[in-house]
Amino acid sequence: MQQVLWVGAVGLSVALCAWFVLELDGRRLLGSMRASAARVDALRAARRGKAAGATVTPGQVSEMVDVIRLGLSAGLSFDAALGMYCEHSRDALASRMARARLGWQMGMETREEGLMAVARDVEVRQLESFAVSVGQAHALGAPLADTLARQGHEMRAAHRAAVEREIERAPVKMLIPTGVLILPALLLSIVGPLIASSGAA
């Protein structure tokens, strides 16, 4: 946020200096101010896009797959089940999927292209296999609920394995704080009184 404000302040100060020093007319000043405002907006949009892409986790993807599978099992179409997920979820994946759904409903792209674009944007590998499965099921007329059930199970297993790997790494990461912070304090608390008592004797 500070960088965005800094760019805006620099752009405004450059525009004002150019107006006073070079005696530019009001239209040019307004144009340079609009250009600096456009740069600020571009920086904000890029920052929002990065933040949205960074918050999507494999757990959210498996949750989305399960919701869509349940919707399909209840008799909804794929688009209706995806719409139900997008309406009731407030995360970055739901908003990105809602935009992709609107894109293929308006005919701007195919369903598989839209889902692959979401997978590239959020950088979650499991979404690519989801997009391919959905595209093949719609092209061949195959039942999608069973495929999504298998994919949801695989996604949950992969997510569980990733969490277990992180848990296994935790003791190794704790060695450095233990060695640097806790052991010296423990040694001082044990050796300190001994040195003090031997010095007093």
From TrEMBL:
Subcellular location: Cell membrane
Topological relation to the membrane, as annotated: Multi-pass membrane protein
UniProt keyword list: Cell membrane, Membrane, Transmembrane, Transmembrane helix
Main location: membrane
Membrane-spanning parts: 6-24, 174-196
Domain Type II secretion system protein GspF: 67-191
InterPro entries: T2SS_GspF_dom
Name of the featured protein: Type II secretion system F family protein
Protein's organism: Collinsella ihumii
